[in-house]
Specification:
The chain has 14 helices and 14 strands. It is of the alpha/beta class and 404 residues long.
Amino acid sequence: MKGNENKPIVGFFGRRNSGKSSLINFVTGQQVAIVSAEAGTTTDPVRKSMEIGGVGPVVLVDTAGTDDVGSLGQERVERSLAVLPTVDLAVLLFTAGNFGAEERAIVEACRSRNVPLLPVCSQVDRLQPEADWLVQVGRECGAEVFCLSVTDPERHEPFLQRVREALPESAYRSPSLLGDVVAPGDTVVMVTPIDSSAPEGRMILPQVQVLRDLMDNHATAVVCRETELATALGRLREPPRLVVTDSQVFAQVAQVVPQEVYLTSFSVVLARAKGLFANYLEGTRSISRLRDGDRVLLLESCTHNVTCEDIGRVKLPRLLARFTGAQLQCDVLAGSSPIVGDVGRYALVVQCGGCVATRRQLQARLEPALAAGVPVTNYGLAIAYMTGIFDRSTAIFDHHQPQK
């Protein structure tokens, strides 16, 4: 089960007036993006969700032209290129005879980041490409060039088919969160606190994702608040296979759950599913090395209403200060904004569970820190470490790798 933004992303790149906006309108059947003969009509990336048969919901991102000029134009180009590491498929548009430095830069960026590329020669109704040229461009791109005109409705379904073929299946078929550690018939207790930061009238997305995953794996889920946990456990005929809790009440829950029962948190489950678990496990222990004056960056993938019980802005900084005894400077960056400035100035980066982010988005966001040698960890793992139950919180995963 995916969140609103936890969908595969298809980015459209190319020079100004290469037909990016027209193609998105053509694909969606709606006037999503403004189309104009004036170069530079698209300024900031524009997103549109749509359903593609055989794939499911995807996000299409229209970007500014890679050949934009001037100081403002350069800023637009930088914003467009910042989208590239987060996409699951890059669609590169160009017209006949126009394949140069801008296009090759996109090709190289995709190749270096292992981003699948779909080259598209557009506007073929007015500029017909030569066959030999298309073959040469296809060799450079590492994929056969798809030709189309948005005036030809018969090219709609063939284009979508190329998108299906080029989009990695891993981008839209999420692996099971707990399917390799929980068997059909197992009982799993989910502990879901309700405090001022909880959304009104509903569960938060990580809880819903784990609940759905347990149902998909034919396990029995028992849901309760931390204040009713002891009662819920006492009513079970047999101990549960696993207890999954909100990280914020790790300490309280650990005292109630018997040692022979596996215990972890929603955030730890997501950390493992997003593909950076080994980095998190290694980086978590660096918490003990934090000293006075060190800076810590807390990354949240979503934006939410901030309360006095906010985990990223209040609880984690307070816990870090108490555990290390150090005067730390904690910065919080919410949403999908990239890290600004030298990430090397941080002694530690702590990422949330990333329930609304795709695996590629999360990895792209943490890539600068990993490249700079900055330790990275996750909200749940950090709290488990500082609570003294780090090994216990990961024990169920010790001999299991997440499913691909």
